[in-house]
Amino acid sequence: MDKDFFYFKEFKIKHNNTAMKVGTDGVLLGAYVDCTGAKNILDIGTGTGLIAIMMAQKSNAEIDAIEIIDEVRLLARENINMCKWKNRITAITIDLQNYYPDKTYDLIVSNPPFYTTDIIAPDKNRAAARHNLSLTIEDLAIHSSRLLSKNGRLYVIYPVKEAEIFSKEVSKHGLLKISELFVKPNFTKNPVRIIMGFSKTASEIISKTISIEKYKRHDYSDEFREITGDFYYKKPE
Fold it and tell me: Which domains does the chain have, with CATH numbers?
């Protein structure tokens, strides 16, 4: 297989010209999200377009994928054009803070930046994607609430510390947690990521913990394979 591409069962992602490669965070988020009933979906910070394409595979929704860096948006558009659902996905160059469409969304998904240290990556695309520069936790909370429909759902993935901060921040803007998936690297480690779902209406919180691997490298757990099984071409690399 061409090393410039990451191959999934029903599509492929070109990621050779971007600082941010296809990673487990994005795949797991896209695989976990509940698309039930969604007619329109927003992917915030689409990057390569991976999550937008995964949403298209999982639903019949119209999908808007926004990205602040135009050259990255062009790569997302290239990947979208290679997939069978290209007519349902629109890639837009804009930042979330200035995005005011004439609609709200049934489903919003984001794999947001999360490093908030003073050590900034030298590559501008990597810095924008990995550091909390252009999309703060507060901004994501405020504008996700603004763009979410009355019965809509928001899904994000963060490291544990940032997940706790986001949960508190988003509650200030009327969103309530409905689900959480704690993600452990393997059976012996503590969770390093949390995928969280939110809505504007109260619900019993569904909480679960999974491990990506068992004990050895590339020895993937059954639960991880089950969640990602509709997407990975073979066992995940």
Answer: 5-228 (3.40.50.150)
